[in-house]
Specification:
By secondary structure, this protein is α/β, with parallel strands linked by helices. The chain has 2 domains: 139 residues, 3-Layer(aba) Sandwich (Rossmann fold), CATH 3.40.50; 162 residues, L-2-Hydroxyisocaproate Dehydrogenase, Chain A, domain 2, CATH 3.90.110. The protein is 41% helix and 19% strand. The two termini are 34 Å apart.
Length: 320
């Protein structure tokens, strides 16, 4: 992997999510170089021009250009946002077939360049496609990361902060599992400041357990609500991707809920699924294994089983 001072990010897919990611990345001044790749070259060239015109207002002048897969050879990070979008009425798992074919072509093209960096996958179903990227690329599992439940966790923290009237940065809570309908809240480790949330509810009549369940339901169904209203979700996930990018390029050792390969953690193996993990310049340094209660363990195993059942027709190595 390249370890010189120039950080190059290659973005594959400049649709709603990809272009929002590029805009947020430039605004935060995290990468030195940003290469955009998409089948729609005219639109991509337009994005490059538009982004470059705003460069004088950015915290640092990221070098941005439209490129091709050869540019991946010197990349530190390849971010994949290419693929079909989730439409109204579709679940994320409905996208498997069409996006699996796209990913085989994309990953093969990236690896043909001699790429030896880190993959960051955003396309849905993200856990399935992160696993596919790992298998197609042949890279170590630590260097293939999915956006996982980073956005679900952000939504969770925002809604809990709104409910308890505190800044979401002071809410410490996780959504884990599939980025989809079987995800789960880890209530046993949810805190405001250092106070467990269930303790806050017990001590204050203004707070109710049923409100907490409604908050989680709104987290789980947020994408459906946004897609119904505006057609797609892209700002939140773009900022989540930038947060992961910063953790990688700045070697932060940050704990983020990303789609990580499990090898016995949480009693599961050979599956990519959303869990807290330590992210640094080498990718996933370590999966953080929280002590789940019995209900959370059952829900997590069910979530992993759903993902494995989807993967089985594509990869014989998946264990049930």
């Amino acid at each position: 992997m390249r370890n010189n001072r120039v950080n190059r990010v290659v973005l594959v897919g400049t649709g709603f999510v990809g272009s929002s990611y590029a805009f947020a990345l430039m605004n935060q001044g995290i990468a030195d170089e940003l290469v955009l790749i998409d089948l729609n070259k005219e639109k991509t060239l337009g994005d490059v021009m538009d982004l470059n015109h705003g460069k004088v207002f950015a915290p640092q002048p990221t070098n941005i250009w439209m490129g091709d897969y050869e540019d991946c050879k010197e990349a530190d990070l390849v971010v994949i946002c290419a693929g079909g979008n989730q439409k109204a009425g579709e679940t994320r798992l409905d996208l498997v077939d069409k996006n699996m074919k796209i990913f085989k072509s994309v990953v093969d093209s990236v690896m043909a360049s001699g790429f030896d960096g880190i993959f960051l996958v955003a396309t849905n179903p993200v856990d399935i496609l992160t696993y596919a990227t790992w298998k197609f690329s042949g890279l170590p599992k630590e260097r293939v990361i999915g956006s996982g439940t980073i956005l679900d966790t952000a939504r969770f923290r925002f809604l809990l902060g709104d409910y308890f009237k505190v800044a979401p940065t002071n809410v410490h809570a996780y959504i884990i599992g599939e980025h989809g309908d079987t995800e789960l809240p880890v209530w046993s480790h949810a805190e405001v400041g250092s106070i467990p949330i269930h303790q806050l509810v017990e001590k204050n009549d203004d707070y109710k357990e049923e409100d907490l369940q409604e908050i989680f339901t709104n987290v789980r169904d947020a994408a459906y609500q946004i897609i119904e209203k505006k057609g797609a979700t892209y700002y939140g996930i773009a900022m989540g991707l930038v947060r992961i990018t910063r953790a990688i390029l700045h070697n932060e050792n940050a704990i983020l809920t990303v789609s990580s390969h499990l090898d016995g953690e949480y009693g599961e193996d050979n599956v990519y699924i959303g869990v807290p993990a330590i992210i640094n310049r080498e990718g996933i340094r370590e999966v953080m294994e929280m002590q789940l209660n019995e209900k959370e363990q059952r829900q997590f195993h069910n979530s992993a089983k759903v993902l494995k059942d989807i993967l089985n027709p594509y990869f014989d190595t998946v264990k049930k």
